[in-house]
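User: Show me sequence and structure for the first protein, then do the same for the second.

Assistant: Starting with the first protein.
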Amino acid sequence: MENSGGIQGNITAGLAGRYAVALFDLARESNAIDTVAKSLATLKTGLTESADLSALIASPVVGRGDAASAIGAVAKAMKLDSLTGKFLGVLAENRRLADLPKMIDAFDAIVADHRGEVTAKVTSAHPLTADQLKALTANLKSRVGRDVSVATTVDPAILGGLVVQLGSQLIDGSIRTRLNSFAQAMKG
């Protein structure tokens, strides 16, 4: 896999990217890319839904051994594949669990690039319906000419509309931005 330039170069730029590339390479060698991606998606959901899990990965107080034991138990309870479980153990031993969310995002981006997809990060004020998501995905696909994987987040602070990050391009159609632009125009 090439690590120079383009999307791949941007992904691997930081520490989280280097760990993600290492995990991707191991997953590819084991023909387990989809399995690892599924386990990481489960883990990402767990991090979002569990304050205890989020506290575990972020705590500098938890020692290496305790963190490794705890994250091993989490991997078993969540029924994560063995490669992902071992990866989490390495992160615990290297005191890198705090970077796990960034590593998951980087892994997802590497997988999307490997599949010839573009990942779009979409922020909306309210959860998108299946029909809205389907229409948005089709629109983005026609815009970039490639398959698009859409990762959604909800942020009520944008009030309405969408904010779409597609690679380095940011399309901000949020009501908050429009109101801020209007306020600036009124100031003169």
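Switching to the second protein now.
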Amino acid sequence: MTFDAKDDAVAWLSARRAEIQMEVWAPEVAARGARKRDVPTFRAYADLWLETRKTKGRELRPTTRRQYRMLLDKFILPTFGDEPIDRISNEAVNA
């Protein structure tokens, strides 16, 4: 996998780390088919993502974190908060 910019790679890695912590992204489990994993809600995923989010290797600034939290709370979580993340379609996001 290649990225156009280092920031894109860092963002991708941050998202994968959050997925690994929530046991949503575990390729070795999927390959073995060893067990069924619980899929978190978008709210649980977003909370962990925001908690672990970094930019250029640094923690988010408090104002940026607050802005992200407001955007999640006001626009995204009312619609997708209680949905399991594997049930959210591109069409639902576009709508």
